[in-house]
Design brief:
Shape: globular
Helix content: 25-40%
Distance between the termini: 40 Å
Strand order of the largest sheet: 6-7-5-8-9-4-10-3-17
Bound molecules: adenosine-5'-triphosphate
Length: 627
C-alpha cells in the first residue's frame, strides 16, 4: 500500500509492483466511488451560449458590477471551465478588451479576473515543486545567461508581474529562470525541459512582458470594443506581434487560455485559430484585433493565404511549441510557410522552439531558422522523466487488456485518469467497453468532430467524465488539474515515438511538482521497448518487475548502482554534440554576459556544465503575502 498525496488530498493507492492483473471487481463503479456516467447529449451541448457571452462582454466592457456578478454567477452555474461550458467554442472565451482611454495598465474587471485566475481547474504547484529546482540545467550557445531568481527581480512589466502573482506563481521554474533573460536580451532560443515544468509560461511571460511596454507603438489599430458590432464596424486585419504554433487543437486552446491570463489588463489581445473550429467565428475574433496569435499549422496557413484577414508583417516573435511533434507530423510545408513564407520581415523576428524532447529533425529545423548566436537551454537529461511519478508495469496478454483495465480502474480509488491507446479504433473500443461497464468516461481522437473534442476535454477537466481515453497525439501537451493516473493501455512502439512518447504521455500526471501514478500494460509485442523502458525505470529508482529483469543492463544492481552511471542511447542532440564542431571557430563564441571558454556542446564539457538552479542563492520562496 502506498500513501499517495495529490495536490489537495491524500489517496491510498494499493499499487506498486503489480505484475498480474488485479482481482476482479465485486462492486459497481458507483459503489466504488466513481461518479455516474454521462452520455454525450448533442442537443444540449449544441445550444447557443449567446447569453453567457453577452453578459461577459457587458461586464467586461462596462465594468458594470451588477453585470459582472451576473456573468460570474452564470459561469458558476454552468459549471464552466475558464468561462466556457460544454458546447462553447474555446476560441470565443472572453479576453480583456482594451479601451484607448486606459493608461499603461487597464482597470480590474472582477468577473473576468475570476474566470481567468479563480478557477479550481488550473493546475497548482505541488508539494514536490522545490525538487524541480534541483534538476540540472545545461546552457549552451554563445552566451552564459544568469538565471533570474524571482519574478520580482526579473524586470517584468508591472502588469505581467501582477498577472504572474494572480496566477499563483511564486518562483520561476528553471526553464523560466533561463528563458526570461534569453528573451529580454533578444536571443533566439531552443529550450527543452521535462513535461509539466512550465514551458508555456517560459515563453509567454518574457515575450508578452517585453511587448507590454511597447504595445501602443507596435500593435496594429483595432476597433473600440465598446462600440464594435460584427458586420457593421469596418473590420481590421489581424497583424499579430507574436505567433505561437503547436501541433494540436487542444494544446492551441490551452496556450490561448494561458495567454488570456497573462494579457489581462493590457492592450495585448490574444486569439486562437485551429482546424475543425468554425472559420467565421475565428475570423470574427481576428477582426477585433490580434496581437498574440496561437494556432495549429493547417489553419494558420489557411489564414496566411488570406492576407486581407491576416498579415504577419508586424511579427516580432515566432514560437514553435512541442517542436519535436511539429517536425514529425508531416508539416514541413506548413512550417516553411509559417517560418518565412508569408509577408513577415524575417530580420525583425525572434524564433523560439520548446519541447520536452529534441530529436535531430527538430534541431535541423532550428539550424535553418534560428540565428547562429541562439541560446540553448536544457533542463535535465533530454527526455528524462520526473522522479515524483510512480511507474508501474503490468504484464498482460493482449486479449486480457480490457478486463485488466476494468480491474485496475476498480482496484484504485477513483481519480482523474487518462488512458492512452495507439489507434483511433482501439480508442473507440475501449471507450465503449468501459462506458458499458458503467464507468464515467469520454474519449478523444482525430476523427472526432471539433465540437466533440472540445466537449470531451471540458467534461474531463470539469470532472464530469473523470476518465479520458486518448490517442497520444491528441493529448500532447494537455495540462489538466488533478490527473493522478495515466494508463498506457498500449505502450508506444518505437516506430510511434517509443520512449519519448512514453515520457510525454506519463507527463500528463505529476505536473509542476505534483505526484502521479503511471501504469502501463506490457505484452509480448512491447519487447522492442523493453530496454529503454527498464533504463527509464532504473533512472527514476522504480522497482523493476520480474518479467523485465532480463533487460537490466549488465553490472547494474538496482538499489546499489548509481543510476547516473546508466548509459542511455544518446538522444539525437547529444549524439550531435558528441562530435560537436559548432563550438570551434567561435560559432558559440564569446558572450556579453560571460565569455564561453570554448565551444559548448549539449552537456558534455565544462562549457555545458550543469548549473543547479538552487545553487543560486536568493531564489525566493513564495511569501504569498502582499499580493
Ligand atoms: N512558476 C510556476 N509556478 C507555479 N505553477 C506554474 C509555474 N509555471 C507554470 N506553472 C503551471 O504549471 C503547469 C504546467 O505548465 P506547462 O503546461 O507550461 O508545462 P510544459 O512544460 O509545457 O509541459 P508539457 O511538456 O507536458 O507540455 C501549468 O498549469 C502552469 O500554469
Amino acid at each position: 500500500m502506498t500513501i499517495w498525496e495529490t495536490n489537495d488530498k491524500v489517496v491510498a493507492h494499493s499499487v506498486v509492483q503489480v505484475d498480474t492483473a488485479p482481482s476482479a471487481p465485486t462492486k459497481t463503479p458507483q459503489e466504488h466511488g466513481w461518479v455516474a456516467k454521462t452520455g454525450y447529449n448533442y442537443t444540449e451541448y449544441n445550444k447557443s451560449n449567446k447569453q453567457i457571452s453577452e453578459d461577459i462582454e457587458l461586464a467586461n466592457g462596462e465594468n458594470n458590477e451588477a453585470a459582472a456578478t451576473a456573468a460570474a454567477g452564470l459561469i458558476e452555474t454552468a459549471g464552466a471551465v475558464g468561462g466556457l461550458k460544454l458546447g462553447d467554442w474555446s476560441g470565443n472565451a472572453a479576453v480583456y478588451e482594451w479601451s484607448e482611454e486606459y493608461g499603461d495598465i487597464g482597470p480590474v474587471f472582477p468577473a473576468l479576473e475570476k474566470q481567468l485566475f479563480g478557477s479550481e481547474f488550473h493546475v497548482k504547484a505541488g508539494i514536490e515543486f522545490e525538487k524541480i529546482r534541483e534538476i540540472e540545467v545545461f546552457q549552451e550557445g554563445v552566451t552564459r545567461l544568469s538565471p533570474v531568481r524571482s519574478f520580482d527581480d526579473a524586470g517584468l512589466h508591472p502588469a505581467m508581474l501582477a498577472n504572474v502573482k494572480l496566477a499563483g506563481y511564486c518562483t520561476p521554474t528553471p526553464i523560466q529562470a533561463y528563458s526570461m533573460p534569453a528573451v529580454f536580451k533578444g536571443y533566439d532560443l531552443i529550450a527543452s525541459a521535462q513535461t509539466g515544468s512550465g514551458k508555456t509560461a517560459a515563453f509567454l511571460i518574457p515575450i508578452l512582458s517585453k511587448l507590454m511596454g511597447k504595445a501602443k507603438k507596435l500593435a496594429a489599430p483595432r476597433p473600440n470594443p465598446a462600440t464594435f458590432q460584427p458586420g457593421i464596424t469596418p473590420f481590421v486585419r489581424a497583424e499579430p506581434l507574436v505567433l505561437i504554433v503547436c501541433p494540436n487543437r487542444e494544446l492551441a486552446t490551452q496556450i490561448f487560455d494561458e495567454a488570456r491570463r497573462f494579457c489581462y489588463r493590457t492592450m495585448l489581445r490574444p486569439c486562437v485559430i485551429y482546424g475543425g473550429g468554425p472559420v467565421v467565428e475565428q475570423f470574427n475574433q481576428l477582426q477585433k484585433g490580434c496581437d498574440v496569435l496561437i494556432g495549429t499549422p493547417g489553419r494558420l496557413c489557411d489564414f496566411i493565404d488570406r492576407p486581407h484577414i491576416l498579415t504577419l508583417k508586424r511579427l516580432r516573435y515566432i514560437v514553435i511549441d512541442e517542436a519535436d511533434e511539429m517536425v514529425h507530423s508531416d508539416w514541413d510545408q506548413e512550417l516553411g510557410k509559417i517560418m518565412n513564407g508569408g509577408d513577415q520581415e524575417t530580420g525583425n523576428i525572434k524564433y523560439m522552439m520548446f519541447s520536452a524532447t529534441f530529436p535531430k529533425v527538430a534541431r535541423e529545423l532550428a539550424a535553418r531558422h534560428l540565428a547562429p548566436d541562439h541560446c540553448r537551454i536544457r533542463v535535465g537529461r533530454a527526455g528524462s522523466t520526473h522522479r515524483n511519478l510512480i511507474q508501474n508495469i503490468i504484464q498482460t496478454d493482449p486479449a486480457q487488456k480490457r478486463s485488466c483495465l476494468l480491474d485496475l480502474l476498480m482496484s484504485l480509488p477513483p481519480s482523474r485518469t487518462i488512458i492512452f491507446v495507439n489507434s483511433k479504433r482501439t480508442c473507440d473500443e475501449v471507450d465503449d467497453h468501459i462506458f458499458n461497464s458503467g464507468l464515467p468516461c469520454t474519449s478523444i481522437h482525430s476523427d472526432r468532430t471539433q465540437r466533440e473534442r472540445e466537449d470531451s476535454i471540458r467534461a474531463f477537466r470539469m470532472g464530469k467524465c473523470p476518465i479520458l481515453i486518448a490517442t497520444g497525439v491528441s493529448a500532447r501537451g494537455l495540462d489538466i488539474a488533478n490527473v493522478s493516473h495515466v494508463i498506457n493501455y498500449d505502450l508506444p512502439s518505437p516506430q510511434y515515438g517509443g520512449i519519448d512518447e512514453y515520457m510525454h504521455r506519463i507527463g500528463r500526471t505529476g505536473r509542476i511538482g505534483n505526484k502521479g501514478l503511471a501504469t502501463s500494460f506490457f505484452t509480448d509485442r512491447d519487447e522492442d521497448l523493453a530496454d529503454a523502458l527498464v533504463k527509464t525505470l532504473l533512472e527514476t529508482n522504480q522497482p523493476i518487475p520480474e518479467f523485465l529483469e532480463s533487460h537490466i543492463p549488465e553490472g547494474f544492481i538496482p538499489g546499489e548502482t548509481d543510476p547516473s552511471t546508466l548509459k542511455f542511447e544518446l538522444s539525437d542532440e547529444e549524439e550531435a554534440d558528441e562530435g560537436n564542431t559548432e563550438g570551434e571557430g567561435g560559432v558559440w563564441g564569446a558572450s556579453e554576459d560571460a565569455p564561453a571558454a570554448s565551444g559548448g556542446g549539449w552537456g558534455a564539457d565544462a562549457d555545458a556544465a550543469p548549473a543547479k538552479a538552487d545553487d543560486n542563492s536568493g531564489w525566493n520562496s513564495c511569501g504569498g503575502a502582499g499580493w
